[in-house]
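User: Predict structure, ligand nicotinamide-adenine-dinucleotide.
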Amino acid sequence: MAYNLLKGKRGIIFGALDEKSIAWKVALKAKEEGAEFVLTNAPLAMRMGAINKLAEECNAQIIPADATSVEDLENLFKQATEILGGKIDFVLHSIGMSPNIRKGKDYGDLNYEWFQKTLDISALSFHKVMHVAEKQDAMSEWGSIVALTYIAAQRVFPDYTDMSQAKAVLESIARNYGYRFAKLKNVRVNTISQSPTMTTAGTGVGGFDAFFDYADKMSPLGNATAEDCANYTIMMFSDLTRKVTMQNLMHDGGFSSMGISEDVVNMIYQNQKQEANS
Ligand SMILES: NC(=O)c1ccc[n+]([C@@H]2O[C@H](COP(=O)([O-])OP(=O)(O)OC[C@H]3O[C@@H](n4cnc5c(N)ncnc54)[C@H](O)[C@@H]3O)[C@@H](O)[C@H]2O)c1
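Assistant: Predicted complex:
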């Protein structure tokens, strides 16, 4: 059911790679809720071509931009405001990539050049996006900027390796730029900390299936899906959340408040029984 929550709003959505992407679901929901927006992704990702299908469905234009390039971002914001006919009301940063994870490097054996790439792509890009938006005075008063993050910023998930540090930096940037943008233009900046989700970035992390199941069993409401995340993100873009800023918002079915759950206890008992019988 649509509520016209984003009627008349203009946005930029980063990070729709394929139908599984969280940004893809956000784009569909934003359209349903009456927004106009441009889609953007790294030129390399664009070559996979799936984003064209989304653009058609949403009647949106695509502007390629590598989010680590200030020049690309300047071009993106300039073109986006021209195409959409005014300042930007919402931005979704849905970007994450670690060459170390992609190439299976263990935390004790990280390649430091790649580590810097992880930080640049997954965290500093968020600062660059807001820096360009500020310089071009491209954000509307009471606009909303959201980046997606993961609880590995606060807790240890060994296979998440250098992405844990990237997410901690990302969340810190949200707080610090959030202060600045609130003072400048009443723009709010938040991160949404999402459950493990079956996407290209998610399933690239070692042992993903196991920690997806573990999180699901630990969360009293179960893992939040990409669609659930899209709904929450739309609410954050809407005028219903104007005074929420500089927050890391947990969107995880209750996972972050749990110590242990009955489901996990039962799973361990079952394993112990199987081991005893074998
Ligand atoms: N999937 C999960 O389990 C999960 C959980 C919590 C948070 N998140 C976060 O959600 C966000 C979206 O990821 P997703 O799960 O939808 O996976 P995804 O792989 O569909 O999206 C990641 C996107 O980042 C883009 N990207 C990579 N390098 C880029 C660059 N240099 N410039 C511009 N874009 C670039 C990719 O092209 C891709 O579209 C990420 O920040 C991710 O860390 C994911």
